[in-house]
Amino acid sequence: MNVAVIGAGLTGLTTAFYLKKAGIGFQIFEKSDRPGGVIQTHHENGFTYESGPNTGMLSRPEVAELLEELKDDCTLEPADETAKSRWIWKNGKWWPLPSGVKTGITTPLFTLPDKLRLLTEPFRKKGENPSESLAGLVLRRMGKSFLDYAIDPFILGIYSGDPHQLVTKYAFPKLYNLEQDYGSFIGGAMKKARQPKNERDKKATGEIFSVEGGLGNLIDALVKNIGPENIRLNCTDLVVQKNDGYYTIGNEPEKFTHVVSAIGGYALSELLPFIGKEELSPVLQMNYSKVAQVSLGFEKWEGIPLNAFGGLVPSVEKRRILGALFLSSFLKNKAPEQGALLSVFLGGVRKPEMAELTDDEITQIVKEEISEMFQLPEFNPALLKIFRYRHAIPQYGFESDEKMRTIERLEMQYPGLILAGNIRDGIGIADRIKQGKTIATQLTNKYDK
């Protein structure tokens, strides 16, 4: 067995890490000049900021296991308790998202009829449409104010997407399964909480995390353990050729029994020319959000206290930003002692044109929005960096069912080909790590046989 891993992002690196542990031959091919994909940590003027993901969540035991195995080279940094609080913008003010029954009753975010409606949620009939949108599910079980001021901003924070265009079964399978398995969100959550957990399951604490010194150190640790010599960088115009019983990459003479593609769906037709575009169509048609991320650093923060994970802005509020993370509030050494580090987001599925604005236009918008929303007397950041992502986050929309059938059919049609990455199985750091380990385990089991 000899495996070609296409893409040195978190999925590809995790796959390679576990392949090496199993003693399976592999080679990683990466088009850019550095591994890690969009994950990159920067240090400047006393600030430590990220381009790409800012944090992860310990929502899968595989994350804890990987960090345990890398403990000699990078150290887990759990978020401070502050990260448990989330803010939602409504009517010119930030409000905490309710975290319990009392705050759920008193919050102005939701209407009284919807609060009362929530009492009967456990008794509603479960849905029968596997392609139901997240918006449809929430309206059916919880009401419009919950959609507008909880789910919509939540979706903007995760997918920078539109709940009317996301299919629950694929975008939020745990939520979908709560209703399907238990008939209710509330009842299902209570029953699941009472179920006994084994020691491995307990590792999935749901905590927000980074690693000390930034997520770039996680990438460095993976590269060190994989071996830099096993990663080929600057592999532009990558093309996989299908031969009789094996694959080759470009003009490389090496033969591979398996190819793991961990790149964006939009690039698959160029990578895999032996598959027709029509065959790949459901994957190629996936929509991606366009996002601009602005890292803002202040040597002395003079706005309102940032005692939360971040603030999200519902679409109905018609603001020009999607929200902001308050990174220095819950992670160490992100900013000078009296300062603050924020990560502000613009664009998304509903306003993709915002990510195409000039630097000056984005800076002006951020200045006006942050100054007003956080009561800043003067906008004088010591750090302002803009990052744009044309293919920021794939949207698991109405094509998802056909997309998954297509992936399954192509993998059967072309033995040894594995179509992975964030085109399936989730978009978060935990999802990428779990998928990479799962793929490596499946290949290891084949190798052992």
UniProtKB/TrEMBL annotation:
NCBIfam families per UniProt: proto_IX_ox
Reactions mediated catalytically: coproporphyrinogen III + 3 O2 = coproporphyrin III + 3 H2O2
Purpose of the protein: Involved in coproporphyrin-dependent heme b biosynthesis. Catalyzes the oxidation of coproporphyrinogen III to coproporphyrin III.
Family affiliation: Belongs to the protoporphyrinogen/coproporphyrinogen oxidase family. Coproporphyrinogen III oxidase subfamily.
Source organism per UniProt: Tangfeifania diversioriginum
BP-aspect Gene Ontology terms: heme biosynthetic process
Locations listed in the record: Cytoplasm
EC number: 1.3.3.15
InterPro entries xref list: Amino_oxidase (IPR002937), FAD/NAD-bd_sf (IPR036188), Protoporphyrinogen_oxidase (IPR004572), Zeta_carotene_desat/Oxidored (IPR050464)
Cofactor requirement: FAD
Pathway: Porphyrin-containing compound metabolism; protoheme biosynthesis
Chief site of localization: cytoplasm
Protein name: Coproporphyrinogen III oxidase
GO molecular function term, any single one: oxygen-dependent protoporphyrinogen oxidase activity
Annotated Gene Ontology cellular component terms: cytoplasm
Domain Amine oxidase span(s) in chain numbering: 10-441
